[in-house]
Amino acid sequence: MTNSEAAKTQPIVRLEDIYKAFGVTEVLKGVSLSLMPQEVVVLVGPSGTGKSTLLRCVNLLSRPDKGRIWLEELEITAPGVNEDKVRQRVGMVFQEFNLFTHLTALENVMIGMTKVLKMDKRAAHAKALEELERVGLANRADHYPAQLSGGQKQRVAIARALGMDPHVMLFDEPTSALDPELTGEVLAVMQKLAFEGMTMMVVSHEMGFAREVADRVVFMEGGYIVEAGPPEQMFDHPQVDRTRVSQ
To answer: Which residue(s) pair with 203 in the sheet?
Structure first.
């Protein structure tokens, strides 16, 4: 087995016994989960059950109170780990778009490349155009956020994350702030990324997307993983009645 073949058999993200509380409220209560290269895992379950907190722990926006997380070979919860370096390898797309309103779509995608990756502007410009093309927005490169629809803003945010060449992409309910008619264009981009082999962990209430795109659906409730399995199991033959999810 070659090194590249061996890498594909090892988790790209591994969470071991993760606990997280905010004040007296326990949000995560011993969650363990692995994400394999090119796998799409969709986290589902009631609101307030720890799904978004789990995602934020993966890129260290929230540090676990207890437990360990590995990103490929690196234990990112170890003391002294460079959080900025970790976030270069973990792209994240939030519910809100968090675009700079005074920058064009192209400039929003370029800024991480020039400021964080220290790319020269010509190379960053070319790569930003490639990423906007990837999400179907090359013709909006010179538009400002105020000139874009909500779905277009979210696609710019996805392009911005992709511009950092992440090893894994995290999506925290990326369509929850969108009108229903704009949701489809964002989900289509995410489906395209999955088809291209992007490793993804997604918090979503879009059950149709979970059934069609996920390799594994993880049902969380009360800070625990109650059940996990392929979509056909989780939708049609759940092992625990509580985890039955419907489209």
So the answer is: 43, 172
pLDDT tens for residues 86-140? 999 999 999 989 999 999 999 999 999 999 999 999 999 999 999 999 999 999 9
Cβ atoms within 10 Å, residue 164? 19
Strand-pairing partners, residue 220, are 225
> Phi and psi (nearest 5°) for 28?
-120, 135
CB 18 within 8 A of CB 57: yes
* Buried b or exposed e, range 40-68, using 16+ CB within 10 angstroms: bbbbbbeeebbbbbbbbbbbbbbebeebe
User: Under DSSP, is residue 236 helix (H, G, I), strand (E, B) or coil?
Assistant: helix
**In a 10 Å sphere around its CB, with 0-12 CB exposed, 13-18 middle and 19+ buried, how is residue 111 labelled?**
middle
Tell me whether residue 168 is exposed, middle or buried, using C-beta atoms within 10 angstroms of its C-beta: 0 to 12, 13 to 18, 19 or more: buried
What is the spatial distance between Cα 157 and Cα 209, in angstroms, rounded to a whole number? Answer: 19
